[in-house]
Structures are given as C-alpha cells and as structure tokens.
Design brief:
alpha/beta; 4-stranded parallel β-sheet; 213 residues; 36% helix; TIM Barrel
Length: 213
C-alpha cells in the first residue's frame, strides 16, 4: 500500500457543519455573535495557490467532501493513505474556552464526516494551543482513536514553539507516539518578517520560511 507523501486539507464548508459538534452554549454563542467562519488569512481558501485549479469544486474550494477527495487523491494518484490536516482559524481565537470548543468540534467533525467514511483516511489533531492544559486534554481525548496520527500546530503562534511553556504538549504527544506536524501559517499576532508586515500575499507566503527557521 502506498502512503501519500503530502497532506490533504479538508475544507470546513461553513459554520453550520460544526454546529452538531459544539456544546449547546457554544452553538448559542455562534448564533448570538453571528460567527459565520473562522477562515484564516494565513491560508485563504480562495487564493489561487491554496489549491490546484482542477481540484476546485462548484464553490471554488478543494476537498469539501470525501467523494471529491477520493477522486482527487486516491483514484488519481493511487494513494493508499492520506492524512487530513484541517487548516481552520482555531489558533486565531483569543478566548481560550472558545478555542477549546472549536478544536474539539473540528476533531469530532473530521472523525465523523471524513474518517468514518473511508478507511484510508487519517487525521491530525487540531489543538487550542492558546492554553497548554486544554491542548494536553485534547491530545489525550483524541489519541484513543488510532486514526489520529499526529498533532497539528502552526509554525508561528503567539510565542515560539520552542518555549518551555509547550513542553507538556510535546511530552503527551511523545507518550502517545504522535509526531508534531508543524504547518506553515501564523496566528497573526506578530509580523511574519523581521521587517514588519508584508504588503502582498505572495510576500507573506514566501516569508513562511522565516517562521520555520
């Protein structure tokens, strides 16, 4: 069996998709606050370089359903496995409790709507890195499902990933034999370059290398 050597980005089709996986309090909050999306400008789904043109569907997005993913990845490339990395704006939420609720909802949505529908799919655990204790709890919760195969974090958050602050996260990931998948992206609390904020998206895109460094 071949294993795909790149990640796959399932697109959250809209906030309504996550509503069944949110607790009642947070469902009410979504309605009351009018939250319709957590899309990140770090990975805008409509940007031309965010997806192959031939992978985009009627809504100009790629991989909005398992059927599309099966056609684009498994049927086309003969891949045996694919890891779903959901790039959604959980890391941008300043409210730690809200971030925890959305991370939990995304992981449950991925498990139910994607992993349950194709045995060749695996997924990364989306974590609310704003709070280390919440992140450890979410890794513990999801690690019991062997289809979750790594922990997903962004290259640039509020503080660098090497700070001792995050060591409990790495310890629990190591204990469960889960690698840390560092994805290009930023929480947009700090400029992505040493000279400040870039003017154009292509500059931001190229500057991600600095974040990894």
């Amino acid at each position: 069996m071949k294993s795909i050597d790149c990640d796959v980005h399932p697109s959250v089709p809209g906030m309504r998709a996550l509503m069944p996986y949110l607790e009642e309090f947070w469902r009410d909050s979504v309605e009351d606050r009018g939250i319709d999306s957590l899309e990140s400008i770090s990975y805008p789904p409509n940007a031309p370089i965010s997806a192959r043109p031939d992978f985009r569907g009627a809504r100009n997005r790629a991989a909005t359903s398992v059927g599309e993913l099966q056609t684009q990845v498994f049927d086309r490339w003969g891949a045996g496995l694919a890891i779903c990395n959901c790039i959604y704006g959980v890391q941008l939420v300043l409210n730690e409790d809200m971030a925890r609720a959305f991370a939990r909802a995304i992981n449950d949505w991925i498990a139910k709507e994607w992993l349950d529908r194709d045995p060749r799919l695996r997924a990364s655990i989306v974590v609310p890195l704003q709070n280390v204790e919440f992140t450890v709890d979410e890794i513990e919760r999801c690690a019991v499902d062997p289809r979750f195969v790594q922990v997903l974090v962004l290259a640039m958050g509020e503080v660098p990933l090497g700070r001792r602050h995050f060591w409990p996260v790495y310890a629990v990931a190591e204990r469960h034999r889960l690698p840390i998948g560092i994805h290009a992206g930023s929480a947009y609390r700090h400029p992505v370059t040493s000279l400040g904020w870039p003017t154009y998206y292509v500059e931001d895109y190229a500057a991600q290398t600095q974040g990894f460094q």
